[in-house]
Amino acid sequence: MTYDGLIKDALAAHGLLLRGGFNFSVGEDAPPGPEGRPARAVLLVGQAGAEPWPHFLRWRQARPEIRENPLDSWSREVIGDVAGRFGARAVSPNDRPFLPFQQWAMRAEGLKPSPLGILMHPEYGLWHAYRGALLFDHEIPIRQAEKVIHLCDLCIGKPCLKACPANAYSPAGFDYAACLAHVRGAQGERCMTGGCLDRNACPHGLAYRYPAEVQAFHMAAFAPPA
User: Fold this and answer.
1) Concatenated DSSP letters for 10-35?
2) What is the pLDDT of residues 109-142, one digit of tens each?
3) Which domain of life is it from (predicted)?
4) Which residues pair with 130 in a beta bridge?
C-alpha cells in the first residue's frame, strides 16, 4: 500500500477523506512543517456528505465537558493523531493566523468557488468540507489535480441566489448582517432547523446533502443566541 493509502485508511476510520495535496515550490511562502522549517508538502483532509457525523457524535458523548466548538476540537484531535503517526504537522482552518485553506483546496483538487463562496465539487456539489491539513518536511509523490468541470458555469438559473428570503447572497457577495438578522428573527426557523435555503437550492451533489440534524448543528454554530 502506498504512503497516502495508509493515511487514507487512517482517516477513513473516522469518516474523513484525504482530499488531494501538492508539494510547495522552492521559495514559496509555506507554513512551518513538523520541524519548524517551511513545509515541503501538504495533504488536505476533509469530508464528503455527513460521513464523519456518527464518529463525531460518539466522541462528543464521551466528552460532554467540551462545549465550545466541539467539531473543531474533534477534528483537531483526530487529524492530530493521524499526523503524529505519519510524521506530519496538523493544522486547522480555524488556526490563527489563518492559513489559505481555500486556495490550497483549489490547487489540490482543481475546484472553483460557487456563487455562495463554497467550492463546487463535480460529485459532492456543495456538500463537503475541509477539516484540516497535514504538513510534511519532505516532498510526497502526489498526482497533480486534473481539470474538472465547474458545474456553476453550466447553471443558467442560479437557484442558489434566489431561495434566501433575506437575499443574503448576491453577485456582490455575502451580506453577513442580513443573514444573521434573518435566521435569528421570527422568520428564520426554517433556516435554523433545515439549513441555508440557498445552499439547499443547488441541484448538484444531492446524494451527499447533509441531514437536517447536521445542518441545524452548523446553523446553531453560525448564529448562536444573541
Assistant:
1) HHHTTT-EEEEEEEPPTT--PPB-TT
2) 999 999 999 999 999 999 999 999 999 999 998 8
3) Bacteria
4) 46
What lies within 8 Å, CB to CB, of 54 at 6+ separation is 15
Give me the residues paired with residue 139 across strands.
none
Residue 38: give the domain boundaries.
Answer: 3-150
Are residue 162 and residue 84 in the same domain, yes or no? no
- Asked if 109 and 133 sit in the same domain, the reply is yes
Q: What are 21's strand-pairing partners?
A: 43
Q: What type of residue sits at position 105?
A: A
Report whether pLDDT(57) > 90: yes
Residue that is last in its domain, among 150, 182, 205: 150
Q: Where are the beta strands (DSSP E) in 37-118?
A: 41-48, 89-91, 112-113
Which residues does 176 contact at the CB level (< 8 Å), separation at least 6? Answer: 168
Q: Tell whether 17 and 125 lie within a shared domain.
A: yes
The C-alpha cell at 219 is 446553523
The partner residues of 105 in beta bridges, in order of sequence, read: none
Q: Are residues 53 and 34 in the same domain?
A: yes
Helix (H) or strand (E) holding 156: none
Backbone angles phi and psi of 25, in degrees to 5: -75, 155
